[in-house]
Design goal:
By secondary structure, the protein is an alpha/beta fold. Helices cover 41% and strands 13% of the residues. The strands form three sheets. It has a seven-stranded mixed beta sheet with strand order 2-8-7-6-5-3-4, sandwiched between helices. A three-stranded antiparallel beta sheet has the order 9-12-11. Strand 5, helix 7 (182-194) and strand 6 (198-202) form a beta-alpha-beta unit. The chain starts with 13 loop residues before the first helix and ends with a helix.
């Protein structure tokens, strides 16, 4: 078969590719621990599930508006008001099939062929592929562990060109767990607005910060709604990855364009998941706090262990639930890069990790600590034994 040229722009998701290999080993009876996929190990909170059950019992199964039911869009507005003091209207919100669709919608609606997108690196693995699919060109703005994976305005000044149309700012970060302060966000977003660069803020981990209150670009959206969009979702903080619920806060005109795209590609998200989403945003956040505390504990356990590994350097994550250790000092002719390292660890430690190449940093590997304390420590012990046998 002859496939469309655009398919050459896309690489398979490295995260799911690793998980597939792990599942294949499990099917053969191998006891594999997966630290590859970024999903909380906690169950979806009971009050959210009850809302979904109620929706099913009430036969809430018909088509809804493409951009989501009014009650959910109002709940999103309430979230931004409660969390960040920002006023918005339901017309400023679209409900999407996870954060990925929020991202894809916005890129497709705004980018023309050849537009450049500044991409702080390490980056989430899907960013460059979706930028290219929308006709854009990712421009990597690199930071390393010596800077806690943070960029600053001077980095943007070096990377920007007359073709720069957008920046994707992800805090807390996947894969590094880096968290920008509000002052850092203000400096970066303020510079972008001054230079007519659209800011797409991916804040899906905003409730999972460990050392300070979350920073947000939402207040900049309120002041410059035509220059900023904020995307978020329920997968991470509310333990709802399989429900596929995301949302975007943006200018009303951009929401209309995203709705036009979504109407042709997927229409609205599942009607039942929308009712669950309302319950998540409007209900108690005690469940979120419990998960946050568990992630802090696991981070600290893992950091204490990795600190004992000779040659491995790991910046302390301040949010999300990932470790991104630099293992390049352990590379050998037989294990020359992070892909080979992850293959080695899967085959010899029976632990699945994601190679840093997928995130733009070949010196590192990504480990998710969204697993139980016992499973995490078992996995790290296996990795240590494989590395230093």
């Amino acid at each position: 078969m002859k496939f469309a040229e655009r398919m050459k722009l896309l690489a398979p998701s490295a995260t799911f590719a690793v998980n597939t290999k792990a599942l294949e080993l499990k099917a053969k009876g191998v006891q594999v621990i997966s630290l590859a996929v970024g999903e909380p190990d906690a169950p979806t909170p009971a009050h959210i599930c009850e809302a979904a059950k109620k929706a099913i019992d009430e036969n809430f199964s018909k088509y809804t508006p493409v951009n989501g039911i009014m009650g959910f869009r109002k709940a999103v507005c309430g979230y931004f008001k409660r969390q960040y003091g920002v006023d918005s209207k339901p017309e400023n919100v679209i409900i999407t099939t996870g954060g990925k669709q929020s991202l894809a919608n916005t890129l497709m609606a705004l980018l023309d062929d050849g537009d450049e997108v500044l991409l702080p690196t390490p980056y989430w693995t899907s960013y460059p592929d979706l930028i290219r699919l929308a006709g854009g060109r990712p421009v990597l703005v690199k930071a390393d562990s010596s800077r806690a994976f943070h960029i600053d305005v001077s980095d943007l000044e070096k990377a920007a060109t007359p073709r720069t149309k957008m920046i994707i700012l992800n805090t807390p970060s996947n894969p590094t767990g880096a968290v920008y302060t509000q002052d850092e966000v203000d400096a970066l977003v303020g510079w972008c607005i001054e230079h007519d660069i659209f800011v797409l803020a991916d804040e899906i981990y905003d409730q999972l910060t460990f050392d300070a209150a979350p920073a947000s670009a939402a207040k900049w959206w309120a002041a410059h709604p035509d220059k900023v969009a904020v995307l978020n979702g329920l997968s991470k903080a509310f333990a709802m990855p399989g429900w596929r619920v995301g949302y975007t806060l943006a200018h009303e005109d951009l929401i209309k364009q995203c709705s036009k795209l979504q109407g042709h590609m997927t229409s609205h998200i599942c009607s039942i998941a929308q009712k669950a989403g309302v319950a998540a945003l409007e209900g108690s956040y005690d469940c979120v706090e419990e998960m946050r505390q568990s992630f802090i504990r696991r981070r600290d356990l893992a950091m204490a262990e990795i600190a004992q590994w000779p040659g491995v350097v790991c910046a302390k994550p301040a949010g999300a639930f990932y470790l991104f250790p630099d293992v390049s000092a352990l590379y050998t002719p037989e294990i020359p890069d992070s892909t080979a390292m992850c293959t080695y660890l899967l085959e010899n430690a029976h632990v699945a990790c994601v190679p840093g190449e997928a995130f733009g940093d070949p010196n590192c590997i990504r480990l998710s600590y969204a697993v139980s304390d016992e499973v995490l420590m078992d996995a790290l012990t296996r990795i240590k034994n494989a590395l230093y046998h």
